[in-house]
User: Fold this.
Amino acid sequence: MSLAVTATFMLADWVVKGLADGTFERVGGVIREVGTKQVVTWLREYGSNSSVLMPNGSPKNLLNLIVSGANLITSGANTVVTTKGFADVNQRLGGIEQVNLGNIAVSGANLVATVANAAFTGKGLADVNEHLGSIETQLGEIGQNFISNQGIMQINTAASVLNLGISVMGFAVISQHIQEIEKQLQQAQELLNKINRKIDLSFYANFHAGIELALNAFTMTKCENRRSSALQAINRFLEAEHIYKDLTVNELSQKSPIIDKYILTLSLAYIAEARCHLELEEHETAIRRFQEGAKFIRLLLNKYIELMLTSNPAAYLHPQFKGHIDLHRLTKIYQWINPNLNENIVFEMQRENMLKLFQNQDQWLSSLPPAIVDRGEIKWGLFGGNPTPLTGRFEKEAYKRLPQVFEIMESMIETNRRFESYQTEIHAIAQLGISFHDWLKLTPSTESQPDGAELMYIIPSQPLNLSI
Assistant:
């Protein structure tokens, strides 16, 4: 059967343009139309497991990385790119992470001036015509090169524990992520000891055992053995889901610093279970389990984000964070909670909070949860003494941690978006009549992988109406 999707290493110009002008948006591992929510492209890591758990630096949004507004792709009739502009772009692609491509765009007024200065000589008109004739081609090439090389790298290093797509989340990858979370919890144990808290890591052994069962199951040749072992693995993952649900709820009640680790573990448990169902080509069951998991995880994450925003979210807009955390980033957090909010609304929400923060900072410091800073972990001087928010050391430590806390919130939201977008792949498999194993095998048939390209794009022949 001829598949109704195309796999390619180069993002189509029309998709780049849609991202530039706001027609399209990235949500996790998919690019979709903003208005209809129809999926136009899936993103898939290719040839590497490049998901980074907690990188330094803030996670990047695809729209900010590819373009700034509509500066990258506009019609050739209204845009002229100068030779210096292309040189600037090439220089930036070579080494600068944050690219402002606005410098390459020249207004229509400059185009008129260019024609006028050519004095309508034969050579002048030929130069202008040649320039106009190649402009869209050049823009498209710049867009594709930027996407496939420097710019798209930021998606792969976005702070998320999950890869871009359920198809890349094999059992070995899940195992790797679980091991990393377990390691982080072991490191956190030293901190928790200071506040007389103990955590039980023995539950992870059951999760690892489930992964081993799954890995063995799907290398078996006999169908009955394969299914039997897979069902045993699924039972292990179901147990893990119940365990980490309870653990997460308990840690939320204590406002502890390891809530995010348990939410991530719970997400991986649901993914591992769903992956087993997919390997067995039980698409409907996989979708149902994803939907149930997404609903519960969203509820937990909402409570977690509310906790980490603190009693006064305006603290994240403190002057000392200028150049690091701004209103745009804070708005993105709020838009995950309520997509109808914009920067003006968020600013109005924080206007009074800013005044309260500066009038009574001690009240805010007193309300900070242990998930951000616990008084028991701070040394209070040679002679000990009861910790108090009036202590300058506590205030300094609290503000020192806020940027990292903000990045963790962004990371958790990005991870959750990827988790929820996994459902679109399963819906697509069912709607297109493709088996899961055929979906895994999708690869560009005529293209070779360009140097530095780490993503493959799967583009349906027409936008698909798939709910996330």
